[in-house]
Amino acid sequence: MSEELDDIQAIFFEECTEGLATAEAGLSAMDAGDVSPGTIAGVFRAVHSIKGGAGAFGHAALTAFAHRFENLLDEVRADRIKPTPGVTRVMLAAFDVLSDHVAAAQGTAPVPADAQMLDALEAILKAGGAPDAAPAAAEPEPDPFGFEPVAVAIDPLEELDPFGFEPVGVALEELDAAEDAGAPRPWTVTFVPSDAALAHGGEPVLIVRELELLGGEVTAVDLSGLPPLRDLEPEHSYFGWTLSVPDNVDETAISDCFDFLAPSSIVEIAREAAPATDLPPVDWATAAPPPPEPPALPAASAAPRPVPPVLDPAPQAAVVAQPPRAASPGNAEPAAQTIRVDLVKLDMLLNLVGELVIRGSILADRLSPKDQERVELPQLSRLTREIQDTVMSLRAQPIKQAFSRVPRMLRDLSVETGKQVVLETSGETTEVDKGVIEKIGDPLTHMIRNAVDHGIESVERRLAAGKPAEGTIRLSAEQKGARIFVRVADDGGGIDRARVRGKAVEKGIIPADAVLTDEEIDQLICAPGFSTAETISNISGRGVGMDVVRSNVEALGGRVEISSVPGRGTTFTMVLPLTLAILEGMIVRLSGQRFVLPLANVIETVQPEPGQVKPTTTTGEVIELRGNYLPVRRLNDTFGLGANDRQRPEDSLVIIVESEGAGLVGLMVDTIDDRREVVIKSLDQNLYPIRGLGGATILGDGSIALILDIEALVAPASRIQKGLAA
Amino acid sequence: MITGNELGERKIVTFSLGQQIFGIEMAALIEIREWDEPTPLPGVPPYIKGVTNLRGTVVPVVGLAERLGWAASPVHARSCILVVNLAGKQAGFLVDEVADIVLIKDSDIRPAPDVEIGEAAVIKGLVKTATREGGSGPAGDIMVLLLDLEALGITRTLDLAA
Amino acid sequence: MSKTILTVDDSASMRMLLKASLTAQGYTIETANDGRHGLARMDEVKPDLLITDINMPEMDGFELIEAVRARHEYRGTPILVLSTEFSDEKKARARSAGATGWITKPFDATKLGSAIRRVCP
Question: pLDDT per residue over A212-227, tens digit each?
Fold first, then answer.
């Protein structure tokens, strides 16, 4: 059973993660001024759930803390305490401690010292509002239900009791022991259920049966309340019972049996005063109808049966939403159902879908268009595409999750550095693989920190430079083809390249006489050994430099791009691959080798007339198209292919593409094979990103065609000549 | 990264490259393939010959001789590509000929002598093995240079030279 | 034939814990993850006992109990509340909504078993 418990607990920890995220988002919103009931209720529920589960799994410190926190949240949601900024601030701090407690419960961090936080919460609860300057060292109120959190606050050095399985009535037992002088006497239990006892599914006779299970015996039944048959109401209770229960039974065990009684029922539990003799059976008791035939006792008294495993023991799971099913007629709307899925299985599914697409490609290759129609290949392709979209959407989650902690972090950084910063976000709904979300958290944190520390200038300097006192950080996510671009852009002072260069020389990263472009200097920030031992910050949690950020991102198969304009600002871009993407592309040939040109940017294809392509002053060429002159790139030259066989433009094709960086550009290729859908395979996965390429694909015959990255190809010639390996 | 079993033994795959016999950990080996012309990549160092399709994954092919700073291996009928797993990334290395799979003892591994290798760090050690009857390598005791695969990794270096 | 219990809780780990604990005691367990879902499941499953949490989004435990009691055929079905809360006020509210009994979390498996026996024949 314990392995199963571990599995269930693993699910609980996942729920904690989700709950903490919800709570954090809600508290941030409250801090920003949104104190609507819905928001507060969301935070309450999240903390309440964490507390509930923590108790069930025996995490005493976490339960205790969550309980106190929940108390405050309950008061706030019931509007008995106002969510002033002071209160919210304390709750935000409490949230941090709660997070630490969760981590401690999982064994990934030490148990936090929470005495001060507990006091602060208590102070608010007592005062009914924002705390005084000094948190009162309050004596915690004794909890009438014996809830153990109180024990923690009183004496933190005492060993914490595990939760849940200790009977609350320890004190009572001691009481009993003290009371009983001499030989223990049996209990006499008198029980007269009220009229209403049968309402709401109650069944007093079951209580009698339970007492019998404890060893009790009915010694008398009081029938005095029984009316004539014609007046008998089936849902009223008319009997009273007297039972004798053995002396060794706990009083609490007996009183527990009456837990659910309707009020106004009569229950008396007392030790027999008279010497123990057999209780005289009252005559009329035997005339009473015997209790109904007891059903088979549940197997609780026998050894528990082995429990089959509830779930696959998968440490990771993704929550997948399913479309709501039709509910039973006449009822409320069906709720959206979710199912937990093993990530490994999802990956396998994704791979298989990719293979399906390739197979479709092969079929398209080998069948003539007429045969393709005959076997209804387009319909098959469409179905495959739908499967692919659906499967992709399973693993993909909005990147919003990764962004959720940023507002809070910025606020703390603002306070810490004294700089004023405003956050703008966009593209939070961009869907990204779940694995990516998990791993960009730290790099993102660090980049934000960098932006505030080094990017945004102090208020004075900004004003002196004619900028608004508040700096702006723009956090965005965007999907383009096979890549996701996550950007952190600040409007600060830009990278001080002279200083960076000097520091790099000082640290021996580059020789003093090295000649570097601006981009290369910018990239030095990510060089190992560049950053001095950064102070270990609360925010990022570890002493890290940009080199760790870069290696983290590269481990994901991505890269970090930096672009900076002195005086205007810096943008850090994390370029990350999608795990599976399908691209509509054009197969083109360069010196016999096949490449894929993404169709999305293609405007038209031109077969140039002699003279239509003209050289310009330096090494460039342009093509004249309907009165406009568009730059032309010979892709053979770009990739260093076919140097000997320079084709004439008239024997080539020029494909006009639309690019962000350079507008309309013509790309010169040898020939075009066809259009098809291809599966993007990452080059980054086993190798590294190569400038000019957006991945590779496997064609129907198993050969590899490289996918062209249009933006990189249309860049000005001088940058390309630097070498295509980024 | 060396993982032997409890007896302090491990399996290595030996192969010839130029005049030397090398060995790599069997545990890292994914498969041995026949030479197949890879798809060339632009803008990569000359020792990366291109990429090849390994059952749906795009895997780089590295000329091991060139990676070690030697002249390129000629490709012939018995040339093989050793596909290995390097810290989660897959790569194929072109070698002259695969010799054998040998069980060696950790205790038999000696430190490497001075050999003309471009990057000395790639040699983990040296071990003497006896070829089996009918093995495809040279007869008698042979000295095998154990390669450190991860040191061979194709990490990108920031090329700062103008 | 074993008794069927419908448990309603928005926490998956709690549902699993309950299910494991009660199945070991010989009951057949069906689950639902919130009030609305629970109401629908009542009709599908027709359990011998309903155990529900209180704090759930959209339709909380009180509302669920009221909705169940509004249906004639469920008038006699025992309903237990299983919640971390324990205030008298909440318990009274549960009772007036129609709950048969209240069990506080964290629960002791044995006590849970005996509580169930006390309401469910």
Answer: 888 888 888 888 878 8
